[in-house]
Every structure is written in structure tokens, then in C-alpha cells.
């Protein structure tokens, strides 16, 4: 199961950059006992997010799925706004940040990290 972005994922992320801010959708499924490790990661990542100009918009536990096939529900959802893809990449490339990413990896059974692009405002 996918948990961490790979080199080809990052290349595509860079190549498809439309410029401007993005909101990163994070969907996670925890391993047995993984919540504690993820909570430790979440605390450690916050200063790096703020340094990158990121804004946590929402974090919460998954609940009742109204429309989902079996196996499509998630344990937690997070939305984080970054000023740019470059800011996100700078954050995750920081050697100090890399020192604690193992906490996230160890916590998760499966994850989705999907960049979103804001829709143009309607008149």
C-alpha cells in the first residue's frame, strides 16, 4: 500500500505545477497502534509547515461514509494550504524534517496525498 511519495510522484507533482497556492488533501489509514506515532509526527511537522507558509485548514477523524465502496473509508482527513508546490517541496526536502518522517511512515497502513487546484471564483 502507498504511504510515501516516490521519485516519479514528485517529478509529476513538479511537472504539473500550474503555479500558485494549493490545498493538499491527506487521507490516512493507520496501522494498529499507529495513531500515537502519527500524533508525534503531526507535532514535529508543525514548525516546518509554518516556516513553509502552510496553513492547516482542517484535521479530523473519518466518520460515516455516505457514498463509498467497501474499503474506501479513511481513519483521518487533513487539508493543508501551501503557498506553492515549491514551498511544499522545500519543506519535505529539509534534512531536519527528514529526521522524523519515519514516524509518519511507521504509523500508516495506506495514504493519499493529493494536490488540489483552486477553482476560479465565479462571478
UniProtKB/TrEMBL annotation:
Gene3D superfamilies: 3.30.70.100. InterPro entries: Dimeric_a/b-barrel (IPR011008), DUF1330 (IPR010753). SUPFAM superfamilies: Dimeric alpha+beta barrel. Coiled coil: none annotated. This is DUF1330 domain-containing protein. It comes from Myxococcus stipitatus (strain DSM 14675 / JCM 12634 / Mx s8). Residues 35-111 form the DUF1330 domain. It comes from the Bacteria.
Amino acid at each position: 500500500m502507498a504511504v510515501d511519495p516516490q521519485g516519479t510522484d514528485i517529478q509529476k507533482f513538479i511537472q504539473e505545477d500550474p503555479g500558485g497556492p494549493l490545498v493538499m488533501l491527506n487521507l490516512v489509514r493507520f496501522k494498529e497502534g499507529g495513531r500515537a506515532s502519527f500524533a508525534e509526527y503531526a507535532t514535529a511537522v508543525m514548525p516546518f509547515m509554518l516556516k513553509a507558509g502552510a496553513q492547516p485548514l482542517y484535521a479530523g477523524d473519518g466518520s460515516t461514509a455516505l457514498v463509498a465502496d467497501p474499503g474506501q473509508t479513511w481513519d483521518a482527513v487533513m487539508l493543508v494550504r501551501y503557498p506553492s508546490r515549491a514551498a511544499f517541496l522545500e519543506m519535505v526536502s529539509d534534512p531536519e524534517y527528514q529526521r522524523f518522517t519515519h514516524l509518519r511512515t511507521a504509523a500508516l497502513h495506506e495514504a493519499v496525498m493529493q494536490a488540489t487546484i483552486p477553482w476560479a471564483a465565479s462571478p
